[in-house]
Amino acid sequence: MSDDDLGSFSTASPDDPHMQPLARHPERAEQLIALTMVIGIVLVVLFGVAYWYNWKPWTFGVTLGGGILFLGFGITAWGKYLMPKGPFVEERHDLRGTDEERDLFGAAVTQRGAGILGRRKVLAGTAGLGLLAFGVVSIFPLLRSLGPLPALTPTRTGWKRGTYLVDSTGRAIHVDDLAVGGIVTVYPMGLQDTDQGQATDQTVLIRLTDTNYTTRPGRETWGPAGYIAYSKLCTHLGCPVGLYEQQLEQLVCPCHQSMFDVTNGAEPDFGPAPRPLPQLPLYVDGRGFVRAQNGFDQPVGPGYWERS
Amino acid sequence: MSTTINGPSSSKQSEESPYGPVGKVLNELDDRLGIAKGGRGLVDKIFPDHWSFMLGEIALYSFVVLIATGIFLTLYYVPSQALVTYHGAYTPLRGQQVSQAYATSIDLSFGVRAGLLMRQMHHWACDIFIGAMVIHMARVFFTGAFRKPRELNYTIGITMLILGILNGFLGYSLPDDLVSGTGIRIAFSILESIPVVGTYLAYLLFGGPFPGTAILPRFYIIHVLLIPLILIGMVTAHLFLLVRQKHTQFPGKGRTEHNVVGAPMVPIFAAKATGFFFMVAGAIALLGGLAQINPIWQFGYYRASNISYAVQPDWYMGFLDGALRIWPSWEWTGFGHTIPLEVFIPALIVPGIVFTLCALWPTIEAKYTKDTAVHNLLDRPRDRPKRTAAGAAIFAFVFMLFVASSTDVLANFSHISLNVVLWAMRVLVIVVPLITFPIVYKICVELQGVPGAGKRKRANIVSRSETGEYLAIPAEQRPGDGHHELDAETVPSYIDFQDEEPQDPGTRRVSR
């Protein structure tokens, strides 16, 4: 073995300037660092005490955090100020191999591949085909068991002809329940505590006036006694459109601030929402309960490829 | 040295090592693993010294803290959407129907000793982890450390940043609180917005329509196993490449393309790094103990029809949220299909372009400058004004998107109409990067002409000679201003420590 392989066998004396610490007063530095470490130790021990006796949460943070922080300061300062200041040097060796090495490596990889594998074309082909088939088949579990494939109308709601509107406690909404300007979130009766009712069927019911209200032509019968209902799912990203600006008569989505004009078929006035909120046609039955004339006339919520 | 060739049989494994029991253990290991040669190289490995090289260390150490605190959290958290009646430590919630995930998240905060500390440390460590990765990436970018031969390591770094952001989102979604639940709802809609396959992707990930019952268990296993495993593998590869290719260094006295000047791994760098790990962990613990983060008990549990005002994601998702807010409502409909461009473009295309541009930058720059040489010396940002200006412009663009994620808060805070704020952000997101480029370019070029910029000027002593002539003579350098570095030497094999001088008996050194 030569010297080069093992680096130099140089011997440094402690007087060598490279071996000197960076600190101008090493003894003072050592005392300071020792003090830092002692504070760290005390705090870590205190953390143990705090944990054992279950003190307040903030004491855990102060003792644990302070403890390791002080220990860290101490160890770093030791390395920076009291260990040999150097600087030391190391040669970089070329990562690149010699031309001959590259030649041999390239030959081994390509010629062995082409020569030995290529000689048995049938075997190489069948092996490749086998791997391919395995690769394709291994995608099947993802498609067949991760979840149901979406039906063509993935946002079909639970609203049907005659469905009662209920609030989150399950109480049916009566025509006398809301004052003018009032708002409540409603669900199809029986679905208020289900995932579908909560996530897809959620609807806002607003009372705009106390006479029949038409939000746009063709919806003359949809707003009996001033009650109008819109899907609560924002058409942008599906957040609940939970803010009602009563003065402006606008529904506001708190996520990205889309605003929907309640008096005009929930047409978006502002923000990134592309479509109005679908409106639920209502009627008041003989006993005064507010019910749905029908389901929504279009899918609720944000857009997706299959939506026409 | 002698040219005698020693056969394997003559290895002196049974002999006593001159370095005591440790030396004996090392010899035994070397007999079996052959660690002596490479081990010596590793012990002597030189790490260059510059404050900006610790940014990556912050990311690494906060990742370690993430794993440690994360393991603690898994002992108590149950990833289930099943409804339970809460009977735990948090009084206001007692008797309410909440998901088991939310109940256990609350209970590990209030019912488990140091549980709140661990949960908050985990959240803080994540914010710091991703922040440190971003700043580390900026350092690598602006100093040209990504150039050949380090393009691969740069790509690994960007992949880790993306995975970190993704895992952060999955992690803060797990408590099933009102804010994070809304985030999951938005994620579902973003998946749905992908043309042709979007609905399928969303259904397969969520196990059906939103919300389903599968999403928390699935997010959980991705968050605690899949992505951490990939991240650990990538961190290992990142560090392996760092050791293999050796660290870059700034130009300076005795520093060339063919050497590394700094401190050896053992014990100097090891001491600094260990201490710094403790400092990072300590800072995170202090934050976790003193600074409240993500108070899920105030947000309440998630019901899909509930929402609260000023819902915002964690900071690293902010640029996505901002892009979604300011993008105009351009939905495309036709041929019986819908493409929600108002979601697809800002949520997927814009970040896709930004990250792809970052990942391809080494290739683009090499093409443009026709520079294919190996670089081990770093650039000062001012010396590469175009790159610096371009990087600053990209950063400005992402930062403005981040600012745009608080349009509602800005409007509320400054009593400006939301409409004005929105339009201002739409303009600023385009204009600020366009202004940033020439300004940064100009600053770089100007700085190049001022070699001593940033350093203290020497005083001029003005004196008048007897003949009435005025002279301005530069004063002596102030102590500490000069660069008094020694010439670099190789690390010595032995340090010839003499025994301390024996003290005279009877005298005692007494400190003052």
β-sheet strand percentage of chain B: 5-15%
Distance from N terminus to C terminus of chain B (CA atoms, Å) equals 53 Å
Shape of chain B: globular
Oligomer: heterodimer
Number of helices of chain B: 16
Number of strands of chain B: 9
Order of secondary-structure elements of chain B: HHEHEEHHHHHHEHHHEEHHHHEEE
- Major beta sheet, strand line-up of chain B: 1-4
Mean pLDDT of chain B: 89
Contiguous uncertain segments of 5+ residues of chain A = 1-8
Largest sheet, spatial ordering of strands of chain A? 3-4-5-6-11
Average pLDDT score of chain A = 88
Low-confidence stretches of chain B: 6-13
Task: Explain what you see.
- The complex is a heterodimer of chains A (308) and B (512).
- Chain A has 308 residues and is α+β, with helices and mostly antiparallel strands.
- Chain A is 35% helix and 15% strand.
- In chain A, strands 3-4-5-6-11 form a 5-stranded antiparallel β-sheet, with no helix packed on it. In chain A, strands 7-8-9-10 form a 4-stranded antiparallel β-sheet, with no helix packed on it.
- In chain A, strand 8 and strand 9 form a beta hairpin.
- In chain A, helix 2 packs antiparallel against helix 3.
- The longest helix of chain A has 28 residues, at 26-53.
- Chain A is flat.
- Chain B is mostly helical and 512 residues long.
- Chain B is 56% helix and 6% strand.
- Chain B has helices at residues 20-33, 36-44, 55-74, 100-110, 115-142, 151-173, 178-192, 198-206, 215-245, 265-290, 296-299, 318-326, 341-369, 385-404, 407-414, 418-448; strands at 46-47, 83-85, 97-99, 259-264, 332-334, 337-339, 460-464, 470-474, 494-495.
- In chain B, the strands form 4 sheets. Chain B has a two-stranded antiparallel ribbon. Chain B has a two-stranded antiparallel sheet with strand order 2-3.
- In chain B, a hairpin with a 5-residue loop joins strand 7 and strand 8.
- The chains are: A alpha+beta (308), B mainly alpha (512).
- At the A-B interface, helix 1, strand 1, helix 3, strand 2 and helix 7 of A face helix 2, helix 7, helix 8, strand 4 and helix 10 of B.
- Strand 1 of chain A pairs parallel with strand 9 of chain B, so a sheet runs across the interface.
